């Protein structure tokens, strides 16, 4: 349990596009595995493709992945698919799960413990989308590879 169901851990490089994906069985151990997969992917983006990846991104993208995969494990109770791709100077993280219920970002509550994952993801990403699929849903979050000047967002990337 907790092992990738399939690590299409394929990494393709087509022009400016680099991608890798992995399927997990939905066990809670896959959350840490997804973070590790993401760190390895970003390291390969730097080493193999020679693209700049800021320290902020090396920490932020695994956080985004962790939050999205945690929600998939917690709420769908089944398998999930993680896809990472780099294109146009950004990392596009997509998580698919089998639950068709769309997530809802909750209003900030100072006393609330937990359930802040979606708020965090939306705050640190330059773009965020949720799509209902024929089976389940697909959530995509985009983080630029380099730090924008003065921490300003670079505009929509989806």
Structure description:
With 158 residues, the chain is an alpha+beta fold. Helices cover 30% and strands 28% of the residues. Helix 1 runs antiparallel to helix 2 and helix 2 packs antiparallel against helix 3.
Q: Could you give a quick summary of the protein structure above?
A:
The protein has three helices and seven strands, in the order βββααββαββ. The chain is an alpha+beta fold and 158 residues long.
Present the secondary structure layout.
Layout: E1 4-6, E2 12-14, E3 17-24, H1 30-47, H2 55-76, E4 80-87, E5 90-97, H3 117-124, E6 127-132, E7 137-144
Antiparallel strand pairs: 1-3, 2-3, 3-4, 4-5, 5-7, 6-7
Helix pairs in contact: 1-2, 2-3
Helix percent reads 25-40%
Helix and strand composition category: alpha+beta
Residue runs with pLDDT of under 50 for 5 or more positions: 1-16, 153-157
- How many H/I helices? 3
Radius of gyration: 15 Å
Strand element count: 7
- Secondary-structure element order, as H and E? EEEHHEEHEE
Largest sheet: 7 strands, antiparallel
Q: State mean pLDDT (0 to 100 scale).
A: 83
Q: What share of residues are in beta strands?
A: 25-35%
Q: What's the end-to-end separation, in Å?
A: 34 Å
Shape: globular
């Amino acid at each position: 349990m907790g092992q990738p169901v399939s690590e299409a851990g394929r990494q393709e490089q087509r022009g400016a596009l680099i991608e890798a994906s992995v399927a997990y069985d939905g066990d809670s151990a896959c959350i840490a595995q997804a973070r590790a997969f993401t760190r390895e992917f970003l390291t390969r983006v730097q080493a193999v493709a020679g693209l700049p990846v800021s320290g902020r991104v090396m920490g932020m993208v695994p956080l985004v992945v962790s939050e999205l995969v945690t929600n998939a494990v917690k709420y769908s109770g089944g398998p999930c698919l993680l896809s990472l791709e780099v294109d146009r100077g950004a990392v596009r993280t997509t998580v698919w799960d089998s639950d068709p219920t769309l997530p809802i970002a909750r209003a900030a509550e100072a006393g609330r413990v937990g359930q802040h994952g979606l708020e965090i993801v939306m705050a640190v990403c330059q773009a965020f989308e949720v799509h209902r699929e024929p089976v389940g849903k697909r959530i995509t979050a985009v983080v630029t590879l380099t730090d924008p000047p003065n921490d300003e967002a670079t505009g929509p990337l989806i």
